[in-house]
């Protein structure tokens, strides 16, 4: 198991290969259908400075945060998968979710030296590893707002890296 802390550097990404088991600690963000397109829109407009966070070295789990906790949603939903290339270009290194992604998305992950991580959809297990949370953008979206989480040992498996996939 490779222990990884955020922010994630290119050297860490370069050392990963498909099938590697990882344990992620540090600051991780949560977003899905409602907020990821809004983040992309901000990036495309050059408005990244309006946020209190930096996309460089970021890990984003495709999930909402509810009283039930966190569990990844399907990453190949149009609103989520279409956000992966521009978020990767902006510096996001880990996209954490579930499901398969298109060939174009796999190529963009490789182009921007980012990876796709799958993690077990077990809310109780994952939520137990959340130390703290705060809403950092789009509070009006409720549980689908963009949250910053401090996490310890979120498990995952590298599913797409460097043009290869499981």
Walk me through what this model shows.
This protein has 166 residues and is of the alpha/beta class. The chain has one domain: Alpha-Beta Barrel (fumarase), CATH 3.20.130.10. 24% of the residues lie in helices and 32% in strands. The protein has six helices and eight strands. It has a five-stranded mixed barrel. A hairpin with a 2-residue loop joins strand 7 and strand 8 (164-165). The mean pLDDT is 93.
Short description:
The chain is an alpha/beta fold and 166 residues long. The protein is built from 6 helices and 8 strands. The protein has a single domain, classed as Alpha-Beta Barrel (fumarase), CATH 3.20.130.10.
List keywords for this structure.
24% helix, 166 residues, single chain, alpha/beta, five-stranded mixed β-barrel
- Give me the secondary-structure category: alpha/beta
Tell me, briefly, the overall form.
Answer: globular
Rounded Rg: 14 Å
Return residue spans where pLDDT drops below 50 for at least 5 consecutive residues: none
Tell me the number of strands: 8
User: For the report, how would you describe the main beta sheet?
Assistant: 5 strands, mixed, barrel
Average pLDDT: 93
**Remind me, CATH topology?**
fumarase
Order of helices and strands: EHEHEHHEHEHEEE
Q: Judging by the overall fold, what is the CATH architecture? A: Alpha-Beta Barrel
């Amino acid at each position: 198991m490779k222990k990884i802390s955020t922010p994630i550097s290119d050297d860490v990404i370069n050392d990963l290969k498909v099938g590697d088991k990882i344990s992620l600690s540090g600051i991780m963000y949560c977003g899905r259908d409602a907020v990821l397109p809004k983040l992309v829109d901000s990036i495309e407009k050059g408005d990244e400075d309006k946020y209190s966070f930096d996309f460089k070295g970021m890990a984003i789990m495709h999930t909402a945060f509810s009283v039930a906790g966190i569990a990844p949603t399907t990453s190949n939903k149009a609103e989520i998968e279409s956000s992966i290339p521009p978020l990767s270009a902006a510096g996001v290194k880990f996209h954490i979710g579930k499901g398969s992604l298109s060939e174009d998305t796999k190529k963009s992950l490789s182009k921007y030296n980012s990876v796709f991580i799958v993690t077990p959809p077990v809310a109780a297990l994952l939520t137990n590893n959340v130390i703290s949370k705060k809403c950092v953008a789009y509070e009006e979206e409720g549980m689908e707002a963009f949250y910053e989480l401090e996490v310890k040992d979120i498990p995952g498996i590298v599913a797409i890296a460097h043009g290869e996939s499981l």
